[in-house]
Amino acid sequence: MNGSLHGAGVGARGPHLDALRARTAASPDAPSWLELLADNHLDPVSARVASSLARRYPVAVHAVGMNLGGVDPVDARYLDRLAALIDLVDPVHVSDHVAFTALDGVHHHDLWPLPHTREVALHVAARVREVQERLGRRVLVENISTYARHAEDDLTEDAFLTTIVEAAGCGLVLDLNNLWVNQHNHGEDALEVLRRLPLDRVGYVHLAGHTRSGDLLIDTHDAPVCDAVWGLYSELQRLAPGTPALIEWDDDLPTFDVMVDHVQRAEALTLAPSAAQVSA
Amino acid sequence: MSARLQALQRRFARDVAGAPAGSRLGIYRRNAELVRARALGLVFPTGRRVVGEECFERVALRYVRETPCRVGSLDHEGRGFHAQWAELVEATPGFEELGYLPDLARLERARHDASIAPEDAKFDWSSLEDADPDRQGEWVFLPAASLRVVRTEWDLLALFDVPAPERTGALWVRRVGDEVTQGAATPGMARLLERVIDHATLGALAEAGLDADIEGAIARGFITGVRLPGGAAS
């Protein structure tokens, strides 16, 4: 699959698979592309599901197991399995998160935050380069939502991400809900972060819902995209027209029609790419 | 950098482990526990249905708190989960009738292993044409990648609506196409399959009197290849 993504996609999830397989990207009531959660498609049976979807839609592969912010050795076996999936579905993009997911051989299966320092950013960039060499392609890294920050932080989120992207030569999956959650939880200005990021390196954005727990917002992916996040998406379109969007919904999944409604809303907000826009 | 970052991450992990519920760091602990507990629910759906959601979540959360996850894939969660059920059955009044839960956990773990196993090959009889008959005793038959054997005296097949005319003390599990199937294994077939899974030579199988069922095991797809002396496998 050459080229780039266009319009809005959805994360392919079990309850929607029949609806997705009954349509193609060209269907009027279907997403324009799909994001496959890599870790759900590494075994032969699930890989066949991924392959069947990739014949109907352009796809991006999104992973959670690279442990890009970790200090344990990069898991070569995991990358080999990921490479096999990539060979099978020929994705437009491959991505993982700016976080650590394992430490001392123990996997916590959650995205834990890194100290925002230049040193850590360069450490992440080195591991991203290692992954890129092993996979033989550029990857995208995603900003995460956080509920606590490290006392050692001395870079803003945008400076931290920009350092990684520039040092690794990678791209970004920009999660706008995560920017909004972080604004709420830490008082950062999501719009300012957005404006300072290298938007020409954004392959696509994530749009998701969250829930409130006491004073905090939790990135639960179990609710509709909120108006504030739609607002960030509109601003992103003004700054980087044509940037594709992914509706990310993992829990309390709605009907497929609701997913399509979100896709259509995102596509209505998506502006035509400007001629000067650098392909991400 | 790595040493300093490792120290920071270890501190963070310690803080998360000790964080009170409802605190900011407690969110990370809760999220990590729930992700793993939910994965256990997917590996052990029948056990979950038998005991109900509330009981299952309680047992699953206890398991994930006591058992650090050493693998990156959630598909491998719960290898020691049967022991949790054994403790629960023993300690919970009224659970005496659920004595099969530990064996059910072993069976469901085997079913999940079969579901994610590499593709099974088909036995190639022509691979034996050039084999040296004088060295037959050194042949090693290869099990189907998805094959598992579960020892149990309980009628677990009834929970999966599979007819079981008699209890044989063992079940086989394997994947055919995309579907995981299971059935009762005769005592001889169970012993054969266990030895094949352990890579016993044909000589050892014959010595144990287990070689008579080999052709049947090949016909049923339990054995999918053979490694001949010198290392060639098919």
Descriptive report:
The complex is a heterodimer of chains A (280) and B (234). In chain A, 38% of the residues lie in helices and 19% in strands. Chain A has 280 residues and is of the alpha/beta class. An 8-stranded parallel β-barrel of chain A has the order 1-2-3-4-7-8-9-12, surrounded by 4 helices. Chain A has a two-stranded antiparallel sheet with strand order 5-6. A two-stranded antiparallel ribbon of chain A has the order 10-11. In chain A, strand 3, helix 3 and strand 4 (93-97) form a beta-alpha-beta unit. In chain A, helix 6 packs across helix 7. Chain A starts with 7 loop residues before the first strand and ends in an 11-residue tail after the last helix. The mean pLDDT of chain A is 95. Chain B is built from 9 helices and 5 strands. Chain B has helices at 2-17, 24-43, 45-51, 53-66, 81-91, 101-116, 187-197, 202-207, 214-219; strands spanning 140-143, 148-151, 170-176, 179-184, 223-227. In chain B, strands 2-3-4 form a 3-stranded antiparallel beta sheet, sandwiched between helices. The longest helix of chain B is centred in the first third of the chain and has 20 residues, at 24-43. Chain B is globular. The N and C termini of chain B lie far apart (48 Å). The relative contact order of chain B is 0.10. The mean pLDDT of chain B is 93. Chain A binds chain B through residues 39, 42-46, 48, 65, 67, 70-71, 75, 78, 100-110, 112-115, 119-120, 122-123, 147-148, 150, 152, 213-214, 216, 218, and chain B through 1-2, 4-6, 8-10, 12-13, 16, 22, 24-25, 27-28, 31-32, 35-36, 39, 68-75, 115-119, 175, 178.
